Amino acid sequence: MIRVLVVDDHEIVRTGLCQLLAATDDLDPVGGAADGEEGIAMAAELRPDVVLMDLSMPGTDGVAATRRIVAENPGTHVLVLTSFSEHQRILAALDAGAEGYLLKDSATEAILSGIRQVVAGGSPLDPKAAREFLTSRRQRPEEISLTAREQEVLEMLGAGLPNRAIAQRLGISERTVKAHLTSIFHRLGVADRTQAALWAQRNADQGATQPSVAGAQLLEAVVQGEQELDQQRDRRGDERQADAGRVERRTDGVAQDRASLLGG
Predict the structure, then answer these.
(1) Where do the domains of the chain lie, and which CATH numbers do they carry?
(2) DSSP, res 101
(3) Fewer C-beta neighbours within 10 Å, C or N terminus of the chain?
(4) Overall pTM > 0.85
(5) 195-226 pLDDT, tens per residue?
């Protein structure tokens, strides 16, 4: 049996996932945690094979919880199950040690299969998340225009400095630092300082966006996800053509029958 810990701040989601897992023959829901901190504690206590991790939670979020769980429980795999497909969230989760990334609107079988895949050494990645990941890799840092001051603030943010320290070093107020950060978040397309810091660390002294270690390991899965989307579109196109052919044949048959009746 594969022992699974569900971490999600919505009780109805936790309960539903646990019931889903319990209905299988090989997946055992050993517990449910309402936030990242509880998930860290339960992972240490229960030693699950897989942690099904939400990202957006109050307090300790899914990225921070993933990093702790992976560091403290080497035998535990983390599979993200979230509603967000933004590339910064994907990269942050992979950098933290997640081995797969699925969306909550995935088919039931895709979620169950994803859990089994991470245990078997696979890296399941939702096709929509794969597309977002590839799109983000095509964007080069030099295409993002930052002012000289914003670049200084971003570099210090990437070095881990808090707003007060940044303000002291640059000789500006904390309010001005916050204003610069707001502008930086908008230009980079990120939601918070953690994502901006990760962006800065990944792109420091590089001419192009480089994939994270985890991202590089999942690149094959990303490409495969893109190929699956293309194959699905091709199949739908073939099915539409086949349906059109059947309709055309039926129309011809009706016309012939009508002509026969009129001729008779």
Answers:
(1) 2-137 (3.40.50.2300), 141-203 (1.10.10.10)
(2) E
(3) C
(4) no
(5) 888 888 777 645 433 444 444 444 444 445 54
